């Protein structure tokens, strides 16, 4: 079937769209300039034959995938330079921005081994390197004269940074730092691109000088020769093996055998190590982890887009696939007409939008906090850290479960690699662990909330994201008057969070009075604390979505306004129905109110259903980015499934060699 012939069911769905899709896309992307840049980047990538695979990479070996992704990632650099020179726009800023946009769009489906060079290595130099160190390394990194990654996680420790075992001991006699892996579990394990791609990395290790340990600090370490790329003496380095996803990222291990680097290679913007071994501590210990906070912020945006891409695939497929009858006198229906299918998919569209708006809100907070840091103001950093932690958890867990729901909604065909749910799911589920394991991050947010609750009890001023706690601290518990309006439901999440926080704090104090240490009491209250932190994050998501959609509706057309408010209503109702027990406990919600909420939820599904395809089309993900036989714009699902199968190496010959080697002898063995 020609690719320019669109499936008639999918075309019919598009004809139902009640809003201007381009208006939606402009709002979703962030304006005409960003949309033009996005489309140009995507079209440019697709137009280059060097970026296309003769055989789909899901048929390739571990080594072949790595080699192909390196080839694509490096070709990008040459192409971008040539393009910008032709446009007379070639300068450092445009070059890096265009590179980063190409490497981060998802067009390299198995993940780019050069992505961390831009996302973590360079930001670490900027955020933690002194002015002199930036002058030494930053231009080289931006020009890719050196390639780097960020080596923190070890075989035995990840999120618990204080437990890292790699040591960095200052040798005053030579003015050098000796890096060592004292145990097997101290080997660095997981850093992307570390295995064979990079020649430098930022290493997190325990700093020792003058017989004292000063905690975890960052060090610039060369790991391979810049000319031969051979590992340097004193290092053990290699690939950690096959993974569920990120197969092109080249995750590696690194062991140090008393490996020496200059003292000047310790990143010293925040803390310093003087020539005599004197340690000058940073103004705030949190400054050491600035790179991780940055990555957590951008993870939320990435999860929103992964979920939106998966919803696009599943909604398009559900509009093409016909199965079962609703009316016995009528033919099989599109599966999206089953309300159970709508209940699986439409909330994922709404959640993707809510997470994307939350990411925009969080990014604004990050920029404001960074600006404050540059001015020497540190008071907002703990708040940013706390909200970034719990939002990283909410976004990754919701994306992982939402993508899996989209896959399940596509039945057996969703299980195929060519459906491409696997690449989105593995990114989401991996992100539940890296840059802070989710449970640990919730506990970090919870510690901040407990601290803020006790501040509120003392009448102290609270930061913006936790100001609502002051309304409940030290006051008698009252159930919130219930209504199913969006502002009241958002307030209900705040009421639930505050009351649960009060209970958790009381439990900690009770346990301390029984003789438990503060740490033991907190550990025993852990289940309550992580729930509080998650609720705090979910309330923030709903508030961000509501406020930003209402802001957009002030200038949007009536048609788009109606759709955006329907989507906001759906995500709020969906979240409310997941905390019914808490709503019954802390608000005046009755069983009758619950039944009404369920009815309004189902009405929201019905309201969004005609625009489902229109909305996912307006996300504006081209086929190449989706990479799915089920989710292509033309809806020619079955032809694309067959085409992909025919590209399997096993289908390139009529008889596989296993017949002569194994099957034929078996059949003639007369067992």
Concise summary:
The protein is an alpha+beta fold and 671 residues long.
What does this structure look like?
By secondary structure, this protein is an alpha+beta fold. The chain folds into three domains: 31-112, no CATH class; 147-282, Beta Barrel (Butyryl-CoA Dehydrogenase, subunit A, domain 2); 292-462 and 486-616, Up-down Bundle (Butyryl-CoA Dehydrogenase, subunit A, domain 3). Helices cover 54% and strands 8% of the residues. The protein has helices at residues 8-15, 21-29, 32-47, 62-86, 92-104, 115-128, 131-142, 290-320, 339-374, 381-409, 421-431, 438-457, 486-513, 518-524, 526-553, 558-577, 580-586, 591-608, 612-618, 623-626, 637-646, 658-667; strands spanning 148-151, 167-171, 176-180, 188-189, 200-209, 212-222, 235-239, 252-256, 259-262, 272-273, 279-280. Helix 10 packs across helix 15 (526-553), helix 12 crosses helix 15 (526-553) and helix 16 (558-577) crosses helix 18 (591-608).
């Amino acid at each position: 079937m020609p690719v320019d012939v669109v499936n008639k069911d999918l075309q019919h769905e598009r004809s139902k769209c009640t809003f201007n899709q381009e208006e939606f896309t402009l709002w979703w992307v962030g304006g005409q300039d960003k949309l033009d840049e996005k489309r140009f980047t995507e079209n440019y990538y697709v137009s280059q034959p060097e970026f296309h695979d003769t055989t789909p990479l899901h048929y390739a070996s571990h080594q072949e995938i790595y080699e192909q992704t390196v080839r694509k990632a490096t070709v990008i650099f040459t192409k971008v330079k040539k393009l910008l020179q032709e446009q007379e726009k070639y300068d450092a800023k445009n070059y890096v921005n265009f590179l980063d946009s190409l490497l981060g769009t998802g067009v390299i489906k198995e993940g780019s081994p050069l992505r961390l060079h831009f996302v973590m290595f360079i930001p670490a130099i900027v955020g933690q390197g002194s002015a002199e160190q930036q002058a030494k390394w930053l231009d080289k990194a931006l020009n890719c004269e050196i390639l780097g990654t960020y080596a923190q996680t070890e075989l035995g420790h990840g999120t618990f940074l204080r437990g890292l075992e790699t040591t960095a001991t200052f040798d005053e006699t030579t003015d050098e730092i000796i890096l060592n892996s004292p145990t097997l579990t101290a080997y660095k394990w997981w850093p992307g691109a570390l295995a064979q791609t990079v020649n430098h990395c930022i290493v997190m290790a325990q700093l020792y000088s003058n017989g004292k340990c000063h905690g975890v600090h960052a060090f610039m370490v060369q790991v391979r020769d810049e000319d031969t790329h051979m590992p340097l003496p004193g290092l053990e380095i290699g690939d950690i093996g096959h993974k569920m996803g990120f197969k092109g990222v080249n995750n590696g291990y690194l062991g140090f055998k008393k490996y020496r680097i200059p003292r000047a290679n310790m990143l010293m913007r925040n803390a310093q190590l003087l020539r005599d071994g004197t340690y000058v501590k940073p103004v705030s210990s949190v400054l050491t982890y600035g790179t991780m906070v940055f990555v957590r912020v951008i993870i939320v945006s990435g999860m929103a887009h992964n979920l939106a891409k998966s919803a696009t695939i599943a909604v398009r497929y559900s509009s093409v696939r016909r199965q079962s009858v609703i009316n016995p006198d009528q033919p099989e229906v599109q599966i999206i007409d089953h309300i159970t299918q709508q209940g699986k998919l439409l909330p994922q569209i709404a959640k993707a939008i809510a997470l994307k708006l939350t990411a925009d809100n969080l990014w604004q907070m990050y920029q404001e906090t960074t600006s404050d840091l540059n001015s020497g103001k540190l008071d907002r950093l703990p708040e940013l850290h706390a909200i970034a932690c719990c939002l990283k958890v909410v976004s990754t867990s919701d994306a992982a479960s939402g993508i899996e729901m989209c896959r399940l909604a596509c039945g057996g065909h969703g299980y195929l690699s060519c459906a491409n749910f696997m690449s989105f799911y593995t990114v989401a589920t991996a992100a539940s662990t890296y840059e802070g394991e989710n449970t640990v991050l919730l506990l970090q947010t919870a510690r901040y909330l407990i601290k803020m609750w006790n501040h509120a009890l003392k009448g102290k001023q609270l930061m913006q994201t936790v100001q609502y706690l002051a309304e409940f601290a030290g006051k008698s518990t009252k159930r919130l008057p219930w209504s199913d309006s969006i502002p009241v439901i958002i307030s209900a999440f705040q009421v639930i969070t505050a009351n649960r926080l009060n209970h958790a704090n009381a439990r900690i104090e009770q346990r301390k009075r029984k003789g438990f240490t503060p740490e033991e009491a907190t550990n025993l209250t852990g289940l309550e604390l992580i729930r509080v932190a998650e609720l705090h994050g979910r309330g923030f998501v709903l508030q961000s979505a509501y406020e930003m959609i209402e802001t957009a509706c002030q200038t949007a057309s009536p048609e788009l306004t109606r759709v955006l408010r329907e989507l906001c209503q759906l995500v709020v109702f969906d979240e409310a129905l997941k905390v019914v027990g808490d709503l019954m406990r802390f608000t005046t919600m009755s069983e009758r109110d619950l039944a009404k909420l369920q009815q309004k939820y189902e009405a929201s599904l019905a309201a969004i259903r005609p625009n489902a395809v229109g909305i996912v089309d307006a996300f504006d993900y081209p086929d190449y980015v989706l990479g799915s036989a089920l989710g292509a714009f033309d809806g020619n699902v079955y032809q694309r499934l067959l085409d992909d199968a025919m590209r399997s190496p096993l289908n390139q010959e009529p008889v596989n060699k296993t017949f002569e080697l194994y099957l034929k002898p078996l059949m003639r063995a007369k067992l």
